[in-house]
Amino acid sequence: MTRRESQDGATLVPTHPAGADAPIVHEKAVMRSLKFPIVLDVFAVIALILAFALPRSGTSTFSLSTAKDLFQIPPIPVPTVATVIAVAILLVALAVLAHLYVARSASGRVPLWLTTVFALLFLFAFLAWASAGKTIPVPGLLVGSLALSTPLIFGALGGVISERVGVVNVAIEGQLLGGAFTGAVVGSITHSPWAGLIAAMVAGVLVAMLLAVFSIRYVVDQVIVGVVLNVLVTGLTSFFYSKVLAADQSLNHPVRFTKLPIPGLSEIPIIGPVFFQQTIIVYLMYVAVIAVWFGLFKTRWGLRLRSVGEHPTAADTVGINVNRTRFWNVSIAGAIAGIGGAYFTLDSVGTFSKEMTNGAGFIALAAVIFGRWDPIRATLAGLMFGFATNLQYQLASIGSPVPSEFLLMLPYVVTILAVAGFVGQVRGPAAANKPYIKS
Question: With 0-12 CB in 10 A as exposed, 13-18 as middle and 19+ as buried, what is 367?
Answer without folding.
Answer: buried
